[in-house]
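Narrative of accomplishments. A recurring question from our advisory board has been how the design workflow behaves on a single, concrete structure rather than in aggregate. To address it, we present the structure tokens for one chain from the evaluation set, followed by the sequence designed for it. No filtering or post-editing was applied between the two.
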């Protein structure tokens, strides 16, 4: 509801304006408002409904009157004030509303009143404007000159000693400017160093003593006390701390805290907060306890309203989507069955949460990935990401890490302390004794204790105080379920897993469904003849769900029928890649491709070298052939091919014939034959032998 004298803050396109309601008709349909800060403002008419709509849409809001102030009047200012009141009352008698709000229409009337009121028409306009802008009361007409402001005794007085006042007024600007340059903008500077830098640059001059340049202070300069005095009220302002610490650090450590975590949440499930940390304890392998496997990763999911830890994951998956997926699945899973897997027997009332929330808040990590968009699409879970370095915006879950780990620190072996990795410090790795399963069991027990523990500093809303609910997470959760449970929803563990599993594209081919170099098959695909159709008509793509930690199966989720079809590796790929993670397979394939590339490079080098050798042989052969050419005609050379072949064949037979024993007689005969054949010049007898051999070849069909 809008009333007269009310101040409205209206968000404009360029700036925010403050308007005061100065008149409203009897039907409350029309009203006049004026800008309270514009020195030349004029009242204007508007509809009440328009501004009520702006308030509902939060484009405008009602604020406290910013012009309220209290003053003591001097004798002179009180006289002027009473004169203004008299003028205002006379104007009210002569001109009625809403006519008085139109300066153009009443201008002639104001001019006629100049003599009787002994003031100008413009001065009358000023009085009316002051009255409307500053609260529609007589205090609005108090003149600014000659008035004394009533100071709050708690405020710091900045009055200076009289003997220093005149001198310090000249130095004040230099001191403030030096403070801005040398202290505010330099996070490493101290007030003392800023003071010295000011003296060096503003209150000293260069002189030469024995040819050496030195700085000498002027005769008069501000003392450190004066520098500190003038900057006292500036050192801890938001502007100074933001520039010295950085805006992100100031928002984390220096901003005002005017709200609480549960202020904007309606009940359980309105907002879950999720975060991960590396646990401060070393653990050992379950296969061989002598093997230290480092520090586990710890994920917590916490309800903002009740502070109940709704999900947990202890594992070796680094802060990643896989780890967060496990924590979110646990948050939606039955905790009785979960605890039984680790040998902890509970009833549902001890840890009753197995739900999905309306919204999840995390840092700019896993929740900013494409996988998180599936939660929004399939389950309607809103995602909130905090800005970088703003852990305070999810302080509920951040604090849980310190509380849970701090409680087990004195009794858990391998827990690291502040001297970890300090020279001469203890090596806590050698104390590791817990396996991952044992550590998870301890965390479960600590979570159960925490959920029943009284929360110190929990600020309860009115209805919680009325029902006398203790500030225990399990009690707050149970109360919220009974009274404010509209935000919680349940899904099956299977559905939650499929929602969180990453979604990718796979290619249907004649060899199977191809994904990351592996081929998969299923009963559905075989019965519906997917692979034969792919061979005849061509391949097509399908959407699949994948658990990155195991290649044995991929899952096809049919959005139309909502059925899930598991695909398994084809026999050949099962033999090669069974029970491996996709990262391991990718590494194997990458290494195989690398080896193939190396082999290909080696083959190309070998081929190039062999080709070069062939070219060398051919070149030498051509040179030798060219040197052996005589004046024999080409015709004669081609006619003698048969004879030449026979000669060459005879020579090769002698060289290629098998010889198992060589005696001296054979060696001598061979030498004699070679010598006689080399010196043999009887062309006719030699030709007879060749002719006989040629005839034998023709008859035998060689």
């Amino acid at each position: 509801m809008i009333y007269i004298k009310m101040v409205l803050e209206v968000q404009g396109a360029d700036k925010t304006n403050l308007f005061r309601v100065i008149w409203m008709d009897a039907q409350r349909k029309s009203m006049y408002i004026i800008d309270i800060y514009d020195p030349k403002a004029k009242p204007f008419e508007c509809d009440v409904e328009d501004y009520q709509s702006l308030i509902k849409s939060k484009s405008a809001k009602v604020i406290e009157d910013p012009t309220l102030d209290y003053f003591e009047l001097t004798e002179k200012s009180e006289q002027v004030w009473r004169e203004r009141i008299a003028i205002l009352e006379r104007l009210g008698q002569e001109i009625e509303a809403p006519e008085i709000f139109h300066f153009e229409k009443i201008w002639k009337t104001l001019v006629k009143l100049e003599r009787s009121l002994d003031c100008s028409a413009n001065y009358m306009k000023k009085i009316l404007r002051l009255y409307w802008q500053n609260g529609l009361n007589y205090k609005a007409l108090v003149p600014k000159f000659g008035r004394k402001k009533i100071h709050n005794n708690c405020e710091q007085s900045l009055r200076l000693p009289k003997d220093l006042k005149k001198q310090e007024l000249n130095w004040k600007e230099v001191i403030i400017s030096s403070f801005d340059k040398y202290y505010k903008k330099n996070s490493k500077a101290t007030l003392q160093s800023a003071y010295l830098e000011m003296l060096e640059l503003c209150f000293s001059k260069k002189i030469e003593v024995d040819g050496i340049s030195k700085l000498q202070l002027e005769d008069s300069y501000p003392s450190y006390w004066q520098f500190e005095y003038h900057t006292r009220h500036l050192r801890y302002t938001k502007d100074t701390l933001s520039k010295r610490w950085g805006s992100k650090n100031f928002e984390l450590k220096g901003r005002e805290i005017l709200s609480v975590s549960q202020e904007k949440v309606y009940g359980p499930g309105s907002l879950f907060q999720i975060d991960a940390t590396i646990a401060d304890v070393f653990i050992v392998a379950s296969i061989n306890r002598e093997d230290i496997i480092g520090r586990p990763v710890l994920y917590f999911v916490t309800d903002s309203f009740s502070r109940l830890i709704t999900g947990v994951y202890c594992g070796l998956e680094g802060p990643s989507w896989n780890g967060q997926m496990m924590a979110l699945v646990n948050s939606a899973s039955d905790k009785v069955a979960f605890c039984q897997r680790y040998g902890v027997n509970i009833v549902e009332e001890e840890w009753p949460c197995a739900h999905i929330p309306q919204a999840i808040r995390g840092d700019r990590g896993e929740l900013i990935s494409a996988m998180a968009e599936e939660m929004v699409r399939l389950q309607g879970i809103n995602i909130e990401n905090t800005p970088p370095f703003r852990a305070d915006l999810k302080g509920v879950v951040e604090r849980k890490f310190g509380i849970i780990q701090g409680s087990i620190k004195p009794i858990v072996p391998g827990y690291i302390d502040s001297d970890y990795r300090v020279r001469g410090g203890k090596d806590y790795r050698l104390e590791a004794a817990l396996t991952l399963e044992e550590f998870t069991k301890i965390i479960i027990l600590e979570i159960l204790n925490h959920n029943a523990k009284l929360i110190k500093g929990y600020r309860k809303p009115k209805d919680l105080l009325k029902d006398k609910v203790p500030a225990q997470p399990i009690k707050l959760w149970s109360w919220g379920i009974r009274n404010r449970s509209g935000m919680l929803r349940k899904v099956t563990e299977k559905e939650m897993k499929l929602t969180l599993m990453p979604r990718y594209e796979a290619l249907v081919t004649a060899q199977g469904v191809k994904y990351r170099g592996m081929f998969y098959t299923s009963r559905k695909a075989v019965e519906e003849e997917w692979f034969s159709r792919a061979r005849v008509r061509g391949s097509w793509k399908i959407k699949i769900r994948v658990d990155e930690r195991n290649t044995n199966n991929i899952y096809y989720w049919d959005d139309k029928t909502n059925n899930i079809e598991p695909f398994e590796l084809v026999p050949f790929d099962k033999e090669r890649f069974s029970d491996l993670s996709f990262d391991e397979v990718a590494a194997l394939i990458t290494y195989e491709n690398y080896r193939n590339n190396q082999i290909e490079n080696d083959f190309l080098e070998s081929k190039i070298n062999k080709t070069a050798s062939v070219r060398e042989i051919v070149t030498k052969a051509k040179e030798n052939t060219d040197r052996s050419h005589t004046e024999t005609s080409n015709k004669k050379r081609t006619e003698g091919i048969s004879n030449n072949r026979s000669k060459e064949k005879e020579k090769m037979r002698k060289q290629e014939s098998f010889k198992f024993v060589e005696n001296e007689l054979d060696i001598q005969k061979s030498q004699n034959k070679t010598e006689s054949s080399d010196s043999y010049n009887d062309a006719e007898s030699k030709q007879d032998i060749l002719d006989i051999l040629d005839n034998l070849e023709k008859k035998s069909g060689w």
